[in-house]
Structure of Cytochrome c oxidase subunit 2:
Amino acid sequence: MGSNGTPGVDERAAGPARATRPAKRRLLVGTGVVLGTLLLTGCSSATTEQWKRLGLPEGASDRTEAVRSLWIGAWIAALIVGVMVWALILYVVVRYRKRSDEAPKQVRYNLPLEVLYTLAPFAIIGVLFFYTVEHGNQVTAMSSSPQHTVNVVGQQWQWTFNYKDTVDGQEGVWETGTLDKPAQLWLPVNESVHFDLTSPDVIHSFWVPSFYFKLDVIPGRTNKFELTPTKTGTFAGKCAELCGLYHSRMVFTVKVVTRAEYDAHLRELAAKGQTGAATGGQDATTIPGHGEQEGEK
Ligand SMILES: [Cu+2]
């Protein structure tokens, strides 16, 4: 509008553009404030803390630090590589932008560059591999004399926990879950526990997110690990391997309690007559409570 056929820069700057720029800025600031408010008010302090751990839940065992530092370290390494790549991309976009219609000089080989982009990925993989192995070893390390041993049985579609402690002179007590009443795993705080994982039917996976730990439960072999719970409380656990129709209901809770409460709980199980071991398979009749589903599996 109002152009006299000579669209000069001066004319345009004096025209409508000058009027709309502050309006645009106000709109941007307004949107930013609204989004920021929504984002901040939508986050509880627990969520904010979880953001600081880059998504990890609060760790509740002595093995979580190894996983946490590997997780954070991998993100930092990825960010460093990312920033370098973004910087190089920006650099070439600006430095070698199109200046004329003439095609640029074509280059076929650049040996130093080719050596660099062959070696750099190996260096990155090497560093990540080293730390993964080292932290993995810390997580899977086992002591020769754990204070407690639990045989975890994953069966379609719940869990049985066999405590190998001696209770009132009895060797071992157990508890099991049903589809309607998921199992509970009681553990004493600050005492080391050795786990044996076994399955009488298909592959399951024992996963307690707060322990940053997951291990497959495989029929015909015993997978082992050890950890020491470091925080009292109730934590969620689940099966992390699609194991059949009711896989989604293969959940359990971990109750980390004081030693006195742990002992009292084991005595309670013994008083109910749940002594010995319930391991499934030929022993499956000792795992009660699967009701109608038991016949269908
Ligand atoms: Cu399962």
User: Anything to note?
Assistant: Residues 1-19, 284-297 have pLDDT under 50 and may be disordered. The CA atoms of residues 40 and 176 lie 42 Å apart. Residues 64-95 form the longest helix (32 residues).
